Amino acid sequence: MTVIANILVGLVAALHVYILVLEMFLWERKPGRSLSGFDAEMARATVPLAANQGLYNGFLAAGLIWGLIAADPTGFRVQVFFLGCVLVAGLYGGLTANRRILLAQALPGALALGAVLLAR
Question: What is the pTM of this model?
Answer without folding.
Answer: 0.94
